[in-house]
Amino acid sequence: MADEESGMSTPQDQNYQVQQHPTRDDDSGEGRDREKADLSKIESTKSIAGTLPLGHEILFVGLICCAQSTTQVGLGQCLAILHVIGDTYGLSNPGELSWLIAAYSLTVGTFILLAGRLGDVYGYKKMLIIGFSWFSVWSMVAGLAVYSNHVLFNFARVFQGVGPAICLPNGLAILGATYAPGPRKAMVFAIFGATAPGGAVLGAVFAGLFNLAWWPWTFWSFSIALACIAVVGSYVIPDPPKKLAKAMTWREMIAELDLLGGLTGVTALILINFAWNQSGVVTWAKAYVYVCLILGFLFAAAFFFIELRVATSPLIPFDALSTDVAFVLACVACGWSCFGIWIYYIWQFYEQLRGASPLHAAAWTVPVAITGAMASVTTGFLLGRLRPAWVMTIALTAFTVGTILIATAPVSQTYWAQSFVCTVVIPWGMDMSFPAATLILSDAVAKEHQGIAASLVNTIVNYSISLALGFAGTIDSHVNRGGGTPEDVLLGFRGAWYFAIGVSGFGLFLSLLFLGKGYWKDRNRRKQGNGDDDGQDSPGG
């Protein structure tokens, strides 16, 4: 355990060294060559993070965590001043307003998978710096869109989301590649997850503050901060080993990047998401909405065919996706779909129905950051001591209970009743499900596939948020009776929240099945007489 926590070679690695060198033949050149090869192999298993001074390691982890926190800043900063931005462009339709959020989450969730593969091929650090730089440029454009129209702002939000799509998987991949499996790695992953709620609150608070002057400064100041992170990160972040070091021909590059699979996959995700989110604006009466949805499913079918039958280096390592991993990803999808609806509509509830200013509403969401940090640290201790299925079950329970609390809260009720309690409960869903899922997948795949492992979890998280907002917007517009009165508006909000409760409830059901499956496997091992205690701590258990 101590070896794992220090980042040095594990006891298994030391046993390997002893077993490979029972004798030493100083006179044999072949023996010396074999010894060098073995020592090289042992060295490759060591943790890069273990070689860093403590101060350097803290700064390094902090910069990597910026990939997570700034992603949520991009979400929170627009949520807080959504109606201010809408008023600037003359937008009032709930479907059009939700696009300002969904457009960002759409590209975050859509391009993550391909960005993870780019990191596997070209280097995680290089792609992370590119991601922060891209994020900075389009954040600046989002602010400058005040001089144009909402079309440019929406496009800026779309391209802004590509930045965190590049940062998230490559940041997580750097952690996965530089830390050896063990409690230290589990805690680092938990800290990474802990920055998410804090980032969302930070973005909302600064948006509320800059709104007192002029809202575009929300995006301009964020752009400056991202540029500084990119510069500092280029010096502080160590270089993990790249999968490929040799130059590639165009044919080899296309095969290694799986560009055909990436093209069909990204197109499918965009078309399906666009159809559901646009249906909340123009309804399903428009033919192009149906056409986009059908084409999206066709491209999705083509993607799976290419990945399973054609691609030599598929974007998704299906051999690593056991039923246990599939259970985890399904639970994460349900939980974060619920979260996307919860966070969008709670801001509308505070500002539209309770009359809170953006800064006041941001203050009401501050408990999310505090309890989120507590939940992440707790999860860091629980992982490795509890079955991951238990962690996911607790997380889905928190998502469900938190949404029930706000969905049933009266408008005139004091904040310190159900609203406050729900902001305390919800982060336990966020910051227990995300670290558990990322750690399980990181340990399930080889080091050269760390980018893909991180991509899968982040794709599920962010795409689920965007897609769920499309579903919720459609429900909202169909049940709010036109939204002419506060009562009708509340009816639409609750319709969306009830849908979120159903989704998270289904995820809770899946997590219970996952939990029961682990105990059933243990029971069968004991019956067969060859079971041991490994099932207690396995990913499936």
From TrEMBL:
Residues 1-39 are annotated as: Disordered. The chain crosses the membrane at residues 97-115, 127-147, 159-180, 187-211, 217-237, 257-276, 288-306, 326-347, 359-383, 390-409, 415-441, 453-475, 495-516. One of its GO terms (cellular component) is membrane. Residues 7-21 have a biased composition (Polar residues). It is a multi-pass membrane protein. The keyword Lipid metabolism does not apply. It is found in: Membrane. One of its GO terms (molecular function) is transmembrane transporter activity. Residues 22-39 have a biased composition (Basic and acidic residues). InterPro entries: MFS (IPR011701), MFS_dom (IPR020846), MFS_trans_sf (IPR036259). It holds the Pfam family MFS_1. Its main location: membrane. Keywords: Membrane, Transmembrane, Transmembrane helix. Residues 55-519 form the Major facilitator superfamily (MFS) profile domain. The keyword Transmembrane applies. This is Major facilitator superfamily (MFS) profile domain-containing protein. The lineage of its organism: Eukaryota, Fungi, Dikarya, Ascomycota, Pezizomycotina.
